[in-house]
Amino acid sequence: MNVKLSGAKYSAIVAIGEEIKKLEKETGRKYLSLNRGVNAVVKINLNSIAQKLDYQTSEMQIYAPTTGMPLLKEAINNEYFANKTQKENIMVTGGGMHALNIVLQSLKLEKIYSHAMFWGAYSNIFKILNIKHNFYSRYEKLLENPEKYSNSAVIICDPNNPVGNKYPDEKLLNIVSVLEKHNATVIWDGPYRRLFNNKTDDIYKKLLQFKNVIITESFSKSIGLSGLRTGFIHTQNEELNKEIAVRILYSCNGVCAFSQILIEKLLSTDEGKQICEEFKEKTTTDIKKNIKYLKDKKLLAVEFYQKSTPVGIFVIVNKSSEQLLKKRIGSVPLNFFTKRTDIDVSNFSRICVSVPTEKFISFFENI
Prior knowledge:
Strand content: 5-15%
Oligomer: single chain
Helix content: 40-55%
Number of helices: 15
Order of helices and strands: HEHHHEHEHEHEEHEHEHEHHHEEHEEEH
Number of strands: 14
Strand order of the largest sheet: 2-9-8-7-5-3-4
Distance between the termini: 51 Å
């Protein structure tokens, strides 16, 4: 048969994980898998909420509405937008990658720009969709020649993957404002942000002032629900919303009802909110300790954080993936995440710092 080849590659990070499992089996020794992008300090405690769900309802057992359950949309509106947007502007998706894919399918673009340090999946999605991928080296560059981005899309990933750094909101909002004036579309991709913030975070409400901003979000990182594969898209463009709804329908016919009902309870009930806060507090406490440890031991690649703050869940360390693997630490080579040629990327790797501090230090103290 003739196969339509996209040219995209299967995730190399998955291959790294398989190699680590193989080494564990061969050596009989445990490895620290920091190549994964999963919060592993603690698991979110879903038992009490899940036990109260009624699995016999029609909402649970029939197709969920294509663009998301109304109650979940209301909860998202309240939690992220302070009830300042419309439910019709929110589209529930099968996680953050699905959200990005659907958005990029639906936009007619000349080019798309991401930071030069970018999530590896971006380039593969662009390749599948045949979109030309361009880069900006730093956020200040977006302000030097903003007309360059007219009729194109610019992705802002905050905090960044792979660097895990955070820039001031005022700086980012100013960039969005300038780009909008030059008819650029901004895709705000922030699946890590809400892990470090709660409902008092008003960035999403502030983004409502811009008509050319599309928000893609996920509950995988913010409340540790990677397995439930749920996220959302927000856009105020009515035509785009209609197109997104059609593409969600014919790509997955809506998101799992169980996932939506459970997440709605986590976002809207007192018990659910407490569960989320406990997960965030425990997770971010160890993330901060782990980053501090790396700083103190001079393992953090500080050159990547000159004008920003490392917050996680990823950081860049000044050890190669091979060096770390010899110490039984799994990581991802930095060249998986950048096309930069001004640095020797072989000397750096990305690690996930969302693991228990005691376990983290027990492996790194050998370096």
